[in-house]
Every structure is written in structure tokens, then in C-alpha cells.
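Supplementary Methods S3. Input chains for the assembly prediction are listed below.
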Amino acid sequence: MTRNLVSVADLSPDDVRWIVNSALVLKRDWIGRGFKLPPLRGKFVGLAFFERSTRTQLSFKLACHNLSADTVEFNPEHSSMAKGETLKDTLATLEAAGLDALVIRHPAEGAAEYAAGIVSMPVVNAGDGRHEHPTQALVDVATLTEALAGGSGWGRGAGSEGTEESLGSASTDASLECLEGLKVVIVGDLARSRVARSTGRLLAKLGCEVVLCGPPNWLPADPGSFGATRATCEVDAELKDADVVYCLRIQHERRGGIHCGRSDYLSGWGITPSRLSLMKAGALIMHPGPVNRGAELSTAALESERSLILSQVANGVPTRMAVMLWCFEVGL
Amino acid sequence: MSASRPRELLIRGGTLVDARGAAVGDVLIREGRIAAAGRAIAKPPGASVLDATGAYVMPALVDLHFHVRTIASADVEDLSSGTQAAALGGFCWVLLMPNTSPPVDRVETFKEFKRAVELSCLIPAEPAACISRGREGASLAPLIDLYEAGARFFTDDGDPVQDASLMRAALELSAALGFCVMDHPEERSLSGDGVAEGPIAEAYGLQGAPPSAEAVMVARDCLLAAETGGRYHAQHLSRPASLELISFFRSVGARVTCEVTPHHLAFCQEEMGRLDPLYKVNPPLAAREERDRLRALVLEGCADALATDHAPHSLESKNRLFAEAPFGISGAEVALSLTLRAIEEAAPEAPLPERLSLAVKLASTAPARIAKLGNLVPGALEEGQPASLVVFDPGRELEVGGAGWRSRGHNHPLLGKKLKGAVEHVVVKGAPVVKGGELV
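Predicted C-alpha cells for the full assembly:
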């Protein structure tokens, strides 16, 4: 069976554990050491981004290069698709040309699932419309685990252990149990968010209680499709006992939804200094980036001790390295 | 029509079903009309016989909503392949939608279409004409000239008439001339991403169409029909709210009718499972609860007619990314069995003859009245009525898209699956066109 990562539903808890462990070990022991790891040497990974992306595309590219895979960037605007070739034919062509895996971002919901049905190589969903963004969800789980599992040797700022034996022991090392029972409040532009759908469902799968919060017209009809138990407008009440407050970016560029002014949003739903003080001790703030500073988060919240936002960025590459290894079924 | 017409034809051993009910009996056909209907009719010397033992004999079906893709013959669904599929489905007449390539928005095209129908269609058929030039919704097509050339139905189907003043003008002409204005009611600012509100829309983050995406335009059209006195027919209604609006305007005397499709009665969004282009249809399939309410309203008599919206596409063009795939289901050949399945699911306690009688009312009697086909379709199975009949075997199974499939569109959600119930024989004005499930 080809390993695809189209949706977080493709991942068993063991898969998540393996990917998160591997990501954190890679981060601790290999990132920034000035050399590449060899496991994917000779593999060609296609990066087919049908929608603009800087951070995700760059982190997949770095992840592949760090593992010695070559990347082939496919730009639909400069391809035969501009001449009217269908996505199906384009995908078949990419596979026939000799790619070993495909990372795809596409504005249409279901595009990665469709691609996985066309090609036999592994397909990784780098975001399909408003549907899913599963690697972001894994980045988020890795970041939370890293922040919470203090004693397991790779908490924040860890990296003191020797590199000799750590790789072999990594896969049994970490535990995702620290996520069980956490209350995660996802706040913001839920209707248009693929991040919330993936992160919410993955956190729910790992035992978190997920609650959705936002302006009434941005809440989904079915909170369950985000892994959530409920959806509410009462942000202040929900923040008080939250362990994690996950803020979403207002997606002005995506169709649908009602626009909301920046300052209106901040006072209604953003993390202002006063909301920051409502949060309980040790509660954390996350955001998939890029942040609309002064809208979803005040500067005080963005720069507070609670913020894991820079860790999320830092975990982007190692998590995607782990995802590529998982797809190719290659151990560390 | 090339089929030979025997002087007399006896359909023997079946159960006769019409909109009023069912009774065991035979039908004797003479010179295109029913000469006798009832128990144990003796076979006149020289008469041909069609065996209907264990089967049901019903008025042949009428389809107010049928798509072929071109007037010329081609490798897409054309008049020949399309009407063969319709005949196999038990239809004796179809209304051809004008969104062909080119569209039927000029008198010359309409006349050419009429000539092609005479030459190529296996069963009687009639083209509708466009309401607007090029189906662009900007200016009226020459409705009066088209009417004088014989057009009796006008629609921009595939697209709604977004401009209310254009619709009003068409209905004003309808009030004066008596033709029927049909609309594909869809408020595009509400109709979302090709799915209805429901679990699949939620799971994929798609904007689902609410009931109002259809109902606001049904309401608008009905208001315009009521105030102009025009004759309005709402196409492929998929939402309970739309049927309730039609019922209301009917009750206050507006000249409005509507149709529902077999697929909107049979399927719901939940059955898609994933974003499956074979289930992609416009209007989109509603969620189960909405669909169940639609069924209930149809059983209560809120819908006038059943129409297939037969919309053939090649599997190649359908098997694409959901967002890129065309809308439509190619369903004429199994319209009756699919409808009966839906009625059975909605009213499992009703006996089969009763369910068949409802299907006859929806798929034959009512649309024949709307299309004024009193000379082609029997309003009841009795002496003197035109002998366009179908013999339906409720026990035989038919594979969707199987060996006998004649539509060039295999795009059906049940492709490769079996459906219970099959059309055995079809007689159009006394002439057999289908015998034993095959074209004559």
C-alpha cells in the first residue's frame, strides 16, 4: 500500500507518534548541523503548488533536501495546464516522468485525494482549498508535545544529549499522552480554515477536547467535522480554562465568509492583553501563521511567554522531513 | 419511425396500471388506439401478441427534461442515441433542452432542430427554445418568431434567468401567446461550490447551497407568473421549500407547475461518501433529511411531474477533479426503476401497484397534460385512448451502464450496479419500439 497523507484520517495514533518523535529527534540532532542526511538519496519529489505558498513550499523543499532527495518544482502557470491539459493528465505525466512522490497544494477541495487516486506514488497534501492541511496539524502536534513533554529529553531548548544513540531510541522515546484531556480552543475564521479542520481532528484523535470559537457566521454547522465537541461565540468564557488557545488567520484571500475589520476583530475575538490575563497559568497560544498582527493577536500576546508561534515555524521543516520518511517507509 | 405497425396488437396477461389504480387485464390495440382494455380479451385472427405475464401495462412515459448535446450526429449524445435511451426507459416523448451546441436561440436553428428530430429520433420529441440570446441572460431571444415557428417551451436550462425583468418579459409574452416558460431556478450568489449544505460539504470545507439557493428564484418566478398571468414551469426542484412555494402559488391560482427528478428522490449527499463526480449534479443532491422531506411532499402530491434531466457526459469528462467535472446524470434508461426504488423507500407499506400508479401519474399523466399530448399518451387505459404503452417487469434486474445501455453517457451514480425492475416492451401509438428489453 502506498502511504499517502491526504487527510489526518490517514494517520493512526502510531503513525502520529512515529512522525512526531522523528521530527523532534531530527530537530534536536540534525537540523542546523551543516550537513544532509542520506536516507532519500536518489528520490525525486515533485512539488506541485497550484496555489501560492512561500512557507509551506519552502519547508517541503528544505525537508526533502535535508534528506538528500531532489525536488522538482512544477509550476502550473508555465506548464501544459496553461494549454488546457487536465489535472489528471498532468499528474499521470509527472509520474511517468519518474517522480517518486508528489507534494500537492491546490485550491480545490479534494484535490489531493483525487491525485492519490490517479498516481501510484505517495501523495502528500500541502493544503487543498478549505479542506485539509495535514502537515500543519502534525507540526502543531509536534510543537505542543515538545512544549509539554518536558521530561522526555527533547523539550524546549533541549539538545544536550549525545547524538550517537539517540536516533535508534527515538521512536520509543516520546509519548503523546501529554495531550490527553487538554482543552484546545480554536478561535477565528473557521469556515475558511483548512488548518483548523486538520489540527482540530488530529488533536481530537489524540484525546484533546476541541472547542471552536468565533463570530457566529464563521462557525461551522457541524463542529464534529473539525473534531470539536461544540462551537460557540463566547470567547472569554472558553479562554478561562483552556490549556491551548489556537488562533486562526483571517483568510481575506479565500472566497466566502464576511469580512471583518481588523480592530473590530481584535476587540471581539482577538487575543488582547485583557484576554491574555484571563488565561490560566501555563496555558499556551498557537497560530499557523502568517499572523495579522493587531487582528488575531495583539503584540502583547504574540510576544508573550505563552506563545509557541516561533516553535511552530521552527518545527515546519523537521516535521515535513519526518512526513517524507514516513511516506517512503524509511526509518531514521 | 421505422417500426412496422401491425393492424392489431394484443398485450396479454399483465396488470393494467394507470393514474387511477390497477387491475388485471389485457389491452387490444387497433390503428394506434386502445380498442379494448379488460379481462380476457380474445385474440383477433391475425393480431400480434406481446406477452405481459407477471408484468404491468402502463401509459408510456413523458419526459419534460432531456438533454442531447448536438443537433448533428456525433460521438456525443445525439438525437439518435438519446431517444434510443429514452425509448428503452419507457418514454414515448421527450422535450429536448435547447442548451445544445449551438444553442436553440434563433428561428433557423429551431427549424433545423425540428427537421433533425423528424429524421433521427426513434420516438416523438420536441425541442424547447432559449429564453435569452446565446443563453446569456442579457436580452430576449426572438420568442414571438420562435413561437410562430412552432416552439411551445422556452428555457435557458443549465443556467437560470438571473435578470428578473427578462423573466418577466418572457412571462408577459407567455400570457399573450400561451407558451410555457421554464426556468432552472438557481440564485448563483447562494449556490456555493457544487454541493448542498450537508455532511460532505462540512467534511471538505465546501460552501454548500442552502435551500434558498433554489427557493428564492422559485418564489421570484412564481410572483412574476402570478402578476403577469404567464405560464411557468419550475425545472428539477430539489428542495422541500421549493415544492411548498409551488403549492402555495398553485393554491392562489397562479399558472405554475414543477418537476422533480428521479435522482433527487433517490439519492442524498450522504451516499456520495467522498467527492464523487458521478454524484455531481445541478441542483446538488440534498442531505438525507431534506431529501426525505422532498419525498414526503412528492407523496403528498406537491410535485406535478417527474422529469429525468437526462444529462449525458463521457466518463472521461466526468472522471475529473470534482470542482472541474461537469454536472449531470445520464439516467433516462433507469428513471422508472430508480423512481420506484425511491417511492418504495419512502412508502414501504404501499403495495407495488399503488407505487406504480403514483409513478404513472408523475411520469406520464401529469407531464402529458403539461405538454398537451392528449393525442399521444393515454390519460387512462381505456377504449379510444392513444396506444402508447409500456410493459414493465418489476422482477427483472438491469445493470446500470450494462450491455444494453444505449446512452452515450455512462455517468450514473449506480454505474455497474443492478437495479430491480426493467422495461420489457414499449409501444408508441400502436407501434412496438422496444420488445423484450431491446430496441425493435
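The longest helix of chain A spans residues 13-29. Chain A touches chain B through 23 residues (CB under 8 Å).
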